Amino acid sequence: MEPIRLAVNGRTDIGQVREENEDSIRCHSSENHPFAYVVVADGMGGYSGGAMASNIAADTLQDQLDKLLNATFLSCSPQQQQLMLRAALVDAIGVANRKILDKKQSHPQFSHMGTTLVSAVIWQDFLVVAHIGDSRAYLWNNYGLQPLTKDHSVVQQMIDSGQLTREQAQSSQVRNHITRALGVAEKAEATINSWTLKESALLLLCSDGLTEYLCDHEIQRVMATYRPALECVYHFIDDANQRGGRDNISAGIIEFCNRADAVVEFSGNPVTLKPKQKGDITIRKTQR
């Protein structure tokens, strides 16, 4: 089997309307090991609170993930490594949530801040995606585009219950209302999925400043068209800005290259860290 090759690229842009960029993005690809990650956080809260929250989340995940490839990890079996990778994401999300809550308590002017989060980590051919809120992850390969996340949002709940179609959701008055975020509750309700990658693919992580303007079909067109593939992030930013750029826009891509010719296979069922409770808080991202 050909060796796995990974490459990353990411960009965040203030957009055409906002006075501050409240998105944060972190990207990394190891020079010595088949390990890469992208983290995208979309903050909310205004008065620099959103930017602070997203930076806390992105920095915390970056710090935790950068420590992962130590001697202990490298000496473990593949199955143990997969468990350690998932555990690292769970721990990092919990730490980030705590840091944001602590900052809000010590700085009342940031009492409304919080952030969405989506992170994808690849080790060898194992992919883990964690998300909370409406920042998304997609996988594209020769079989097309596959959403890897489902929004924690009011409109997604309405779609699931049959109250709205996906087309109606695009223009809904509550399309920016999310039901989960970091920094709003004592426990972070992130969802974690994992897959085994069996063929070359591109992973896109993005904030809703991109998906506000580009539907899944248009995202697939960009990812299938432009090469080098990592330059798709620039096309995504430009497309969203040309269509209005009302929000900050962030896009990160991981390029996974593997000669094996098979479909992407699920290696596990979705896991929610904390069951959804009745009366969950709804966060209006338009507060930003």
Automatic annotation (TrEMBL):
Domain PPM-type phosphatase: 7-256
SMART domains (alphabetical): PP2C_SIG (SM00331), PP2Cc (SM00332)
InterPro entries: PP2C, PPM-type-like_dom_sf, PPM-type_phosphatase-like_dom
Annotated SUPFAM superfamilies: PP2C-like
Protein name stated in the entry: Stp1/IreP family PP2C-type Ser/Thr phosphatase
Species, as recorded: Microbulbifer salipaludis
Upper taxonomic lineage: Bacteria, Pseudomonadati, Pseudomonadota, Gammaproteobacteria, Cellvibrionales
